[in-house]
Amino acid sequence: MTDTSRAGDHSADPRGTTSSDTASDTSIDGMDLTVRTPDEGRLVVEVQGELDMLTAPQLRREVIDRLPDSSAVVLALDGVTFLGTSGLAALIELREHAQKSGTHLALACTERRVLRPLGIAGLHHLFDIHDSVDEALSAAL
């Protein structure tokens, strides 16, 4: 079953989520999160908008609270329009929490506006990065 957390005005679901998926939405000024569970133990968090000092704590809360129940978490970051240093710090913190809980954390992203800050900061090698959510989920098997 899928738990989807989505915030903001998203009347149409571009992912084509099936009835077996459940989802929930969360919104904070500048960022929308859609959290879904495509199947037991695997979590996909789609981030839309800015990942900065204001919004990073919400992402951390949404993911860290679910890590104990997840074998794999994929952060879908193609919808991120700005990745600030606080967003980078949140990704590092999520990686550390995932490692401690034994959860596989992967990023699904092809956007330069996300990959470039990761590369400039020398952090890209710390993450399992894939071109799509499906690739990231497959790698987590």
Describe the structure.
β1 and β2 form a beta hairpin. The chain has 141 residues and is an alpha/beta fold. Residues 1-20 have low confidence and may be disordered. The chain has helices at residues 56-64, 85-101, 112-120, 133-139; strands at residues 22-28, 31-39, 42-51, 72-83, 104-108, 128-130. The longest helix is centred in the middle third of the chain and has 17 residues, at 85-101. 30% of the residues lie in helices and 33% in strands. It has a single domain (22-139), classed as Transcription Regulator spoIIAA. InterPro entries: Anti-sigma_ant (IPR003658), STAS_dom (IPR002645), STAS_dom_sf (IPR036513). Residues 17-27 have a biased composition (Low complexity). Belongs to the anti-sigma-factor antagonist family.
Brief rundown of the structure:
This protein has helices at 56-64, 85-101, 112-120, 133-139; strands at 22-28, 31-39, 42-51, 72-83, 104-108, 128-130. With 141 residues, it is α/β, with parallel strands linked by helices.
Summary tags:
Anti-sigma factor antagonist; 6 strands; 4 helices; STAS_dom; anti-sigma factor antagonist activity; globular; Transcription Regulator spoIIAA; 141 residues; disordered N terminus; Anti-sigma_ant; STAS_dom_sf; 33% strand; six-stranded mixed β-sheet; single chain; alpha/beta
